[in-house]
Amino acid sequence: MNIAKSFGSRLRFLRKEHNISQEKLAELSGLHRTYISSLERGFRNPTIATLYSIANALNIDISYLVMDIGNK
Question: What was the pLDDT predicted at 1?
């Protein structure tokens, strides 16, 4: 699995674990819902600023957001 897809799977898992929709995550992070969808499907690579926004929206550390994504 490539890193973008691995990150997307991790993001989807964490979003669902927090019981929020893509739309709600987009609202909380200041990103567009279609961008969140593209990240989850592994079609986009997030910047550090994007990682920060998502981690902040999920109330987690960036390190937890990207934990183990290169090991799959």
Answer: 66
